């Protein structure tokens, strides 16, 4: 029984994987042999320095007359719950076999130090010594933090999604033999992504796929209508880009407002139909489950109302440019009728819900 243990940590089990030595390594001689064997198999492994560092501290305290022991414990390549469970078992073994009054923890960086709570819950920690090769003082911590951050599904999704889609867009333009538009398409996509993130519109996309999954698992009719709406949304985006594209081919540059409006003009009715498809599915689900469907009926009317207003506005703006199918006077009449029609449809749609005293939020 020793009063103090010099404890070296190998959380990811490099000793086991590379040198074939696992578990609890007790004693100076066994630790020295383990470090040498690991060095023979992988001389660049930082755990070699950790074990030698623990032996050095052991020798210093031993020469000073203290009652000490040096111990190395290993975890598992699956860093986290699995590795920490093994480390906890090894710590319990040390507590029962050596029964130290305190420990000095020796690690090779940030990753191993995540097990300090496991150690402090069992032993008094006198000191923590980090052994880092001088030429790479921050590499261990930096690499671990990067690995930890990139293992977070949310970070991976937010980081790699725009990069992946941007590369796909670039490849499509290059394969289609339009490399001159590739950079513009990439910048446009990044801009759209930033707007989605800024106004949290991406949450709506996540909700769409979450509802799609729920509808499938629960066997609802809305699953089919969600699929239909996804198809309509996709066709709408393609049509919107096609309308946008045609406007860019004009001899005179139409300007940013016209280009944005052309995209809206191309997508609006497909998006409207997609929204109605979702509402229709929800309505049928409510009827089958014998719940109130008035809310979804109202939402359908409001979607049509908004679509009509946006379509009328886009027609009016685009009528000022050449090659548009509608003249200015006709566009003004269309715009006016679309506004009145939009208001009328909205009022009709809201009436049943107001009469029943319901709310869209419910």
TrEMBL record:
**Domain of life, source organism:** Archaea
| Name this polypeptide is given | Putative membrane protein
> One Pfam family, short name please?
DUF373
Q: Which PANTHER family match?
A: DUF373 FAMILY PROTEIN, HYPOTHETICAL MEMBRANE PROTEIN, CONSERVED, DUF373 FAMILY
Task: Report TM segments.
Answer: 155-175, 181-200, 221-245, 257-281, 293-319, 331-351
Q: Does the keyword Membrane apply?
A: yes
Record bears the keyword RNA-binding? no
Q: Which UniProt keywords apply?
A: Membrane, Transmembrane, Transmembrane helix
């Amino acid at each position: 029984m020793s009063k103090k243990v010099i404890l070296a940590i190998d959380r990811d089990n490099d000793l086991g994987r590379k040198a074939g030595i696992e578990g609890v390594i007790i004693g100076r001689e066994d630790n020295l042999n383990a470090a040498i064997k690991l060095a023979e198999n992988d001389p660049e492994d930082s755990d070699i320095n950790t074990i030698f560092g623990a032996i050095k501290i052991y020798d210093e305290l031993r020469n000073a007359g203290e009652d000490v022991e040096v111990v190395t414990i290993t975890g598992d390549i699956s860093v986290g719950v699995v590795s920490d469970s093994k480390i906890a078992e090894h710590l319990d073994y040390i507590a029962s076999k050596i029964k130290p009054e305190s420990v000095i923890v020796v690690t090779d960086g940030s990753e191993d130090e995540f097990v300090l709570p496991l150690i402090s819950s069992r032993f008094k920690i006198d000191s923590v010594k980090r052994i880092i090769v001088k030429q790479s003082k921050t590499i261990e911590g930096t690499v671990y933090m990067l690995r930890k951050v990139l293992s977070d599904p949310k970070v991976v999704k937010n980081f790699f999604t725009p990069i992946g889609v941007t590369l796909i867009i670039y490849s499509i333009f290059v394969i289609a033999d339009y490399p001159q538009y590739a950079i513009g398409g990439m910048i446009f996509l990044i801009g759209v992504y930033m707007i989605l993130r800024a106004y949290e519109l991406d949450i709506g996309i996540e909700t769409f796929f979450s509802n799609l999954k729920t509808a499938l698992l629960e066997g609802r009719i809305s699953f089919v209508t969600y699929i239909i709406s996804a198809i309509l949304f996709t066709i709408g985006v393609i049509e919107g880009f096609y309308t946008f594209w045609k406007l860019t081919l004009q001899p005179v540059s139409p300007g940013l407002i016209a280009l944005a409006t052309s995209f809206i003009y191309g997508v609006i009715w497909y998006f409207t139909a997609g929204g109605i498809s979702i509402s229709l599915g929800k309505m049928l689900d409510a009827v089958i489950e014998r719940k109130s469907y008035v809310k979804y009926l109202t939402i359908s009317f409001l979607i049509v109302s908004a679509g009509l207003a946006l379509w009328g506005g886009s027609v009016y703006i685009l009528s000022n440019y050449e090659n548009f199918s509608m003249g200015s006077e006709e566009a003004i009449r269309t715009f006016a009728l679309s506004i009145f029609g939009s208001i009328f449809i909205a009022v009709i749609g809201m009436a049943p819900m107001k009469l029943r005293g319901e709310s869209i939020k419910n």
